[in-house]
Please model this.
Amino acid sequence: MSLKRIVRHMLAPQWVVNRAFPKRTLAAVEKAIRESEKLHDGEIRFAVEGGLNLWLLLHGRTPRRRAIEMFSQLRVWDTGHNSGVLIYVQLVDRRIEIVADRGIAAKVKQVEWDAICRRMEAAFRERCYEEGVLAGIREVTALLAQHFPPASVNPDELPDQPVML
Model:
């Protein structure tokens, strides 16, 4: 646990998240997810979190562990084909994590998801949040379309709206 990390999280105002992800960006993300899910049998959720609370920080919550928690809390695992994918943004730590359900993880290695995350983080360093997220969704879509083509019946099992934590 780093005191510097705790201070950064405790002093991060919510407007930092809102500035990086204004309503128009969130609408573009929602639209991209909706369009993406027509091309494969996966389900994508997108979540952004600003500063973590003190309890999480004192208990050493890493962005990866937090992403796994959010995967569960947002019920991304709750799909018929175990084909949920969470794109989690920890804005204060400047980290992005992708967590894929077991049906997808059996076909797509974590190293492929991590490469997408690092490219998104590079866009974020340039303050290109919307472009970075939309590019990431396109890359996730390509992997899902390759490994999980759409079934004849392709229900929308999870909400497409981004989640602001």
